[in-house]
Structure formats: structure tokens, C-alpha cells
Amino acid sequence: MASKIVVGYDGSGSAKRAVDFAVGTAKAQGKTLVIAHVLEWSPYSFLTPMELEERHKRRNEELQRAETAVLNPLMQDLADSGVEITTALKYGHIAETLVRIARDEEASQVVIGRTGYSALEARLFGSVAGSLAQASPVPVTIVP
After folding, report:
1. Rounded Cα gap, residues 59 and 117, in angstroms
2. Which tens digits make up the pLDDT trace of 78-130?
3. What per-residue string of b and e applies to 19-33 under the rule 16 or more CB within 10 Å gives b?
4. Separation of alpha carbons 37 and 130, rounded Å
5. CATH code where residue 22 lies
6. pLDDT digits (tens, 9 = 90+) for 32-54
7. Is this model's pTM higher than 0.70 or not?
8. Structural domain that includes position 109
9. Among 106, 112, 114, which residue's Cα sits nearest to residue 137?
10. 123 and 70 Cβ atoms separated by less than 8 Å
């Protein structure tokens, strides 16, 4: 079985460059890709049953929009790439969720694009790239 590369994708220019890099790597090394889109979703612990129901409905709508607007167009663009590609669409903390996907898929590598965080934002909030590089069980490639 060919090993897998998980690619974090959010529709940005840097994410598209990460996908292009991963496609080239997968072709050269005979690997498959898992394109992962993670929607940030923080849990609320103090909601009424009605609020929880509404939140669940909105969550499902957001997942459908993400699949339609983000993943499906990318998959159409990559249809003739010659690489076997699947997708993963999840909610959660982005770095933690990408780590979980990499483990579940038994990936050999994770590829993400570097976003344009300012130095101040990165110091205050951390970055997905930094968090992922520290927590990932496999090598992480950060594409500029």
C-alpha cells in the first residue's frame, strides 16, 4: 500500500501552493493524498438544548458549504493529476485535527501552506504551522 500525504487546505494561495507541492511529491514517490479542510469550531459547554440543536444545524450547513465551495472545486482541478486523492472535512482546532487525521490515515507526511501571520500575531496566538510542527507524529513540510 502506498503511503499517504495529508495536505491542510483552506482555499488560500499558500494552501494551493502546498497542494501543488504535495501533488508533485506524491507523483515522484508513488504516494496518495488526503486533502484535509478543517473548520475551526470551539466547544461551548453552557448551551440550552435548543441552542445545541441550532448549533448542530449551523455546523452541518457550514460543512456542506465548505465541501461545495472549497473541496469540490479543488478536486475538480486535480482530477487529471494522476494522483489518488481523497478528502477529509472536519471541525476542531486546526493543528490538533490535522495531527489526528495524519494518525488515522497512517500518513508519512503532512504538508501545509505558510500563512501570513505577523510576528506579533504569531507570538500572541501561535501559528498552525508552529503548533503542527511540534505536535505532528510525522514530518511536516511548510510551503511558503
Report:
1. 27
2. 999 999 999 999 988 889 999 999 999 999 999 998 874 445 445 444 578 88
3. bbbbbebbeeeebbb
4. 18
5. 3.40.50.620
6. 999 999 988 666 666 677 877 77
7. yes
8. 4-143
9. 106
10. no
Scanning 36-135, the segments in alpha helix (DSSP H) are 49-66, 72-77, 94-104, 119-125, 128-135
Q: Count CB neighbours of 82 within 10 A.
A: 9
Q: What is the 3-state secondary structure (H, E, C) of 62-74?
A: HHHHHHHHHHHHH
Calpha distance 22→36 (Å, rounded): 12
Give the relative orientation of helices 94-104 and 128-135 as an angle to the nearest 10 degrees.
40
Question: ∠ at Cα 137 (132, 141), nearest 5°?
Answer: 50
Task: Tally the domains of the chain.
Answer: 1
**SS percent in the chain: helix, strand, coil, step 5:** 50, 20, 30
Are 131 and 95 in contact, with CB atoms under 8 Å apart? yes
**Residue 86 DSSP symbol:** E
Going by the DSSP 8-state scheme, the letter that residue 136 receives in this structure is: -
SS3 114: coil
